[in-house]
TrEMBL record:
Keywords: Glycoprotein, Hydrolase, Lipid degradation, Lipid metabolism, Signal. It holds the Pfam family PLA2_B. This is Lysophospholipase. Its EC number is 3.1.1.5. It catalyses: a 1-acyl-sn-glycero-3-phosphocholine + H2O = sn-glycerol 3-phosphocholine + a fatty acid + H(+). It comes from Hanseniaspora valbyensis NRRL Y-1626.
Length: 571
């Protein structure tokens, strides 16, 4: 069925009016500021008090789990006793990082993550990896990887296994229903339902704009994604509400971090990276952080401009989801080549043109750091004199793995499991570009405070097939002593075809249930390297304790040494 564009515009407006209310849950809310409102913004580095307290709580949970996991995979129990003794005040901490790459990254990443989850079927005991996720402290996601981490976190830390079971017993109510394109979620047969969905989204955005907040096309994508990743959509799902969810408050899940970067049309190497965590939004590079619950408030010199005009609910989880997924900037440009037809295409063209033209494409955030004293070197970011910050996909500078937050020395991470599901080769496999980009960043002034292990450039990476197997980067700490500090060991796990052709296009916006399960299953196989090494879980365990052994000057066992011979890359 085909409608004329003026008819569609009229229908959209009509539908919008019929769903509109005086306010919508998506709209940020003006509240009076808390009495300590000058502490909503901090200009010091290090962990926030909230994070420090939370991590202490998490450590008490993860340390026994980690010790018990490692003892089921490693022979040298005396080493584990030393590492986990009360005398050792820095126990091993682990983190997971999931790269960008739209639904490909989300689904493959889900499979990889499930390989470390003890809630996955038949995934515990000797030789298995299940339990390491339960023993982890941080989980960072970027773009498609962030869709995964956010969706799991905000659905009560649901397991990938449970999502898979829902799909298998499909009765039309599964989470991650991406059978139809996000652009036409009800399928071509039901254009009216699509129209109503978009009309509701349109109303939400209009209300936010009418309330005086900057809006952009990112609101549109963020809301649309929300319907796929959260039960009942997410116009009222607030990022900071995670603080109050039992599973997070009790530290029964890892600390999630999402990244985005400052829009910089000219120069990418000096681009500022921002993180969203359950407590704060900010940048390590600029040592500036703001209480995330009050994001959207106008600040000057670190205090609210008007103490009766603080803002809540700006930190909508869907909006943050959309911010980290700049892919859709490209979708908007490519709309003619996506095979959309008829009404759906028209609806989108109208929506895109109505939000893109006014405010440009990047997501606008009132800048909490506005007016603070300028830094001697702000790396050209102007972070203290822009009233609004424009944020884009964290991968736009090539760093599609969200390493920067995990490299911070204060977070004391010993091993990062890095899932690389980027598509940089001609056949859409990863090439190690994201590792190299982070490695190169430390040589720039803006990267002076981070350290990252040596990695080869993408040419060598691909030549040596490092993108086709699990590789440990940064084993030899002696070699790293010239860096700013000894960085975490990186356990690199690339997307590779084992049971399913998982090199799908970033622009594939719908997956059948069969494809979805195929991607997840292949990701699981990739994390295990298709079970080709019976010592694999042992070797992964050796990687987890290596930094602690180096700190305590314990020589790795022969068992671990042979793992390092197999898995470590040496410059
Ligand atoms: C402000 O004070 C309240 C109550 O004393 C406290 O719960 C909150 O954490 C403080 N906020 C900041 C940003 O310090
Ligand atoms: C997974 O690990 C957690 C923490 O150790 C434990 O409470 C839970 O029972 C385990 N679940 C399974 C299915 O093994
Ligand atoms: C649909 O499936 C889910 C997951 O298996 C289940 O929890 C739910 O009760 C089912 N709904 C109906 C209506 O059968
Ligand atoms: C996905 O959503 C579509 C449209 O609402 C529906 O027809 C389909 O049954 C759903 N599939 C699953 C697996 O829930
Ligand atoms: C602060 O906002 C209130 C409305 O909430 C307004 O009446 C007042 O004039 C504002 N104060 C300043 C200094 O702008
Ligand atoms: C990055 O910023 C620093 C400091 O402002 C400057 O010296 C350097 O040349 C910039 N790097 C690039 C590649 O522009
Ligand atoms: C910072 O301001 C300068 C001068 O106005 C401008 O050229 C540059 O693009 C700005 N940088 C960013 C990241 O906005
Ligand atoms: C996926 O990879 C296979 C082999 O590596 C290649 O033949 C195929 O063309 C790739 N698919 C895409 C979409 O590039
Ligand atoms: C990649 O690294 C190799 C080995 O260091 C070097 O020979 C080659 O020139 C580099 N290639 C690029 C494109 O920088
Ligand atoms: C680590 O690197 C140093 C310096 O190159 C070298 O002497 C040492 O043998 C290396 N250690 C291992 C275990 O490979
Ligand atoms: C991975 O393992 C599966 C099942 O054992 C096998 O069918 C498949 O061929 C293997 N894939 C590769 C690339 O070896
Ligand atoms: C570790 O223990 C297992 C089972 O007890 C044994 O098969 C294996 O050979 C041992 N490995 C080493 C290096 O001693």
């Amino acid at each position: 069925m085909q409608y004329s564009s003026s008819l569609i515009t009229a229908l959209l407006l009509l539908a919008s009016n019929s769903v509109s209310a005086a306010t919508s849950a998506y709209q940020p809310e003006v509240v009076s500021c808390p009495s300590n409102s000058s502490s909503l913004v901090r200009t010091s580095g290090g962990l926030s008090t909230d994070e420090t307290e939370w991590v202490t709580k998490r450590d008490a949970i993860t340390e026994p789990i980690l010790k018990s996991y490692l003892s089921s995979q490693l022979n040298s129990t005396s080493t584990l006793d030393k590492i986990f003794s009360d005398d050792n005040d820095q126990k091993p901490k682990i983190a997971f990082a999931v790269s960008g790459g739209s639904y490909r990254a989300m689904l493959s990443g889900a499979g990889m993550l499930s390989a470390f989850d003890n809630r996955t079927d038949d995934n515990t005991g000797s030789g298995k990896l299940g339990g390491l996720l339960q023993a982890s402290t941080y989980l960072a996601g970027l773009s498609g990887g962030n869709w995964l981490t956010t969706s799991l976190a905000f659905n009560d830390w649901i397991s990938v296994q449970e999502v898979v079971d829902q799909v298998k017993n499909s009765n039309g109510s599964s989470l991650w229903n991406i059978t139809n394109s996000i652009l036409a979620p009800f399928g071509a047969e039901e254009p009216m339902n699509d129209l109503l969905r978009w009309a509701k989204i349109r109303t939400d955005i209009q209300n936010k704009e009418d309330a005086g907040f900057p809006v952009s096309i990112v609101d549109l994508w963020g809301l649309a994604l929300s319907y796929q990743f959260f039960e009942n959509g997410a116009e009222n799902l607030i990022w900071s509400s995670l603080q109050k969810s039992d599973v997070f408050a009790n530290a029964e899940m890892p600390f999630i971090i999402s990244t985005a970067e400052q829009y910089n049309a000219v120069e990418t190497i000096n681009t500022t990276i921002f993180e969203f965590n359950p407590f704060e939004f900010g940048s390590w590079e600029h040592e500036k952080f703001a209480n995330i619950e009050y994001l959207g408030t106008s600040f000057k010199d670190g205090s609210p401009v008007n103490s009766t005009q603080c803002v809540n609910n700006f930190d909508n989880a869907g909006y943050i989801l959309g911010t980290s997924a700049g892919l859709f900037n490209l979708v908007a440009e490519k709309i003619d080549s996506l095979g959309l037809t008829g009404t759906t295409k028209e609806i989108l063209e109208i929506l895109i043109s109505s939000w893109a033209s006014e405010n440009g494409i990047p997501a606008a955030y009132p800048n909490p750091f506005y007016g603070l004293e300028a830094e001697s070197n702000d790396f050209g970011s102007n972070i203290t004199y822009l009233e609004d910050l424009y944020l884009v996909d964290g991968g736009e500078d090539g760093e599609t793995l969200p390493f920067v937050p995990l490299l911070q020395e204060e977070r004391e991470i010993d091993a990062i499991f890095a899932f690389d599901i980027d598509a940089n080769t001609d056949e859409l496999w990863p090439s190690g570009l994201s590792l190299y980009a982070t490695y190169a960043r430390q040589a720039q002034p803006i990267g002076a405070d981070i350290a990252f292990p040596f990695v080869p450039n993408t040419t060598v990476f691909v030549e040596e097939s490092l993108n086709e197997k699990t590789v440990f980067f940064g084993c030899n700490a002696t070699l790293l002593s010239e860096l700013a500090y000894i960085p975490p060991l990186v356990v690199y796990i690339p997307n590779k075809e084992y049971t399913f052709a998982s090199n799908t296009s970033t622009f594939q916006l719908s997956y059948t249930d069969k494809e979805k399960l195929g991607m997840i299953e292949n990701g699981y196989a990739a994390a295990y390297q298709n079970n080709t090494d019976s010592d694999y879980a042992t070797c992964i365990s050796c990687a987890v304790i290596l930094r602690a052994q180096q700190r305590l000057d314990i020589t790795p066992s022969a068992e671990c040494q042979s793992c390092f011979d197999n898995y470590c890359w040496s410059p």
